[in-house]
Design goal:
5-stranded parallel sheet; 385 residues; 7-stranded parallel sheet; 14 strands; alpha/beta
Length: 385
């Protein structure tokens, strides 16, 4: 089938978690024989930090102004078997209005930020990328969050079909690899600065670092304020590209996972980094949130200490054997349920159900795609930065 995706970015992983999420899904769809066109607004921030300008598994359409390019972009959707608009796509509202008016589709909204979206909809009935008035016209709402969020989307905001469509991991890329000296440490964290995560980062990483001055800690990611008072044994990396993620996760004794406040309140909202670190066999220390046990079992596959003192105790007293076994169990659990191929099959099933039940759109020409498509010539899977 042909799928057109309007998303935040697939070409740049700088300062966002959308890129790796889209890359894993789109690559899996391509390997299953589907043709994907990814539409991305050509914004200055991502233009300056593109680590994947030409993906080898989809065609990328860049544009600058929606009004000037809307007709051309709608033409891409005319023969599509599914059209997907993602959260934080800069022109998402205009795109969905045009798609609905053109009668192409089925139309799916892929919300990689469901708890944040719901928080905005409750307060204002609208966020920058979604108007609540349009939700009832969307054929399927693919939600980053499961649990109660799905009920709220359907009962309060009129979604026809709200489906838990969690992020996933590309198991070909994310796997245990040889440790890299630059990333060797006792505890590492990878994530863009967020004001609501920062207190937890200081409590669960910086505080243990101060308690254990002989050990090494790493915080990687952009946009952290220059005045942040890190402990002297906390090493900072402003960016670690996707190509280095496996080395990053494989080089630390433990990896820290932290969750945005809205995701914690909503529950059932696993961040993509949780899956990626697990696929690399990392032993993960995490904050706590409802539904975590649906993905990894606390105490057996992941650890959820209450504060920095408990983190320090883990670093001091958990044996290497216990740590390695925990990482291996987490990897096994995630690879059994949350790879990009799992998500691609789920996507096919969703489109199949929409095609058989929806009469307002043209009959779908979906195939399950047992034959993989060839990757585009001279386009690598990723270009390390």
């Amino acid at each position: 089938m042909k799928v057109v995706i309007f998303g935040l970015t697939i070409t740049s992983a700088w300062g966002n978690g959308h890129a790796t999420t889209y890359r894993s899904l789109v690559k899996a769809l391509a390997l299953r024989g589907h043709h994907v066109v990814f539409v991305e607004k050509d914004v200055k921030w991502y233009r300056a930090h593109r680590d994947l300008p030409r993906p080898g598994y989809c065609f990328v359409e860049l544009y600058e102004e929606w009004a000037v390019n809307a007709l051309r972009l709608m033409q891409l959707c005319r023969d599509a078997d599914a059209v997907v608009v993602g959260s934080y796509f800069p022109d998402a509202i205009a795109a969905m209005e045009a798609i609905i008016e053109a009668g192409v589709g089925p139309l799916l909204f892929y919300d990689i930020d469901t708890p944040i979206t719901l928080s905005g909809l409750r307060k204002h009935s609208k966020v920058a990328y979604l108007d609540s008035a349009v939700i009832s016209q969307i054929d399927a709402y693919l939600s980053f969050a499961g649990g109660p969020s799905l009920h709220e989307l359907e009962q309060r905001f009129g979604a026809k079909k709200a489906i838990a469509f969690y992020c996933s991991v590309d198991a070909d890329l994310y796997k245990p690899v040889q440790a890299h000296d630059n990333f060797r440490c006792d505890l590492s964290y990878l994530g863009t600065y967020a004001a609501d995560r920062q207190p937890k980062l200081m409590d669960l990483l910086d505080s243990p670092a101060r308690q254990l001055p002989e050990q090494r800690f790493i915080v990687a990611g952009p946009m952290y304020p220059a005045e942040t008072g890190w402990a002297s044994n906390v090493v900072r990396f402003s960016h670690v590209g996707p190509g280095e993620h496996p080395s990053f996760y494989s080089s630390a004794r433990f990896s820290l996972n932290l969750t945005r406040d809205e995701m914690v309140l909503a529950g059932y909202s696993p961040p993509v980094r949780l899956f990626e670190a697990s696929a690399c066999g990392a032993a993960i220390i995490s904050d706590r949130w409802s539904g975590l046990e649906e993905f990894l079992e606390p105490g057996k596959e992941i650890l959820t200490p209450s504060d920095g003192r408990e983190v320090a105790d883990i670093l001091l007293y958990l044996s290497d054997r216990e740590r390695e076994q925990m990482g291996a169990r987490a990897r096994e659990r995630i690879l059994a349920h949350h790879t990009s191929l799992h998500r691609a099959v789920q996507f096919e099933e969703i489109i199949g159900s929409l095609s058989s039940n929806t009469t307002t759109h043209k009959a779908a020409r979906m195939t399950t795609g047992t034959e993989p498509v060839a990757l585009l010539p001279d386009a690598p899977a990723y270009i390390p930065q």
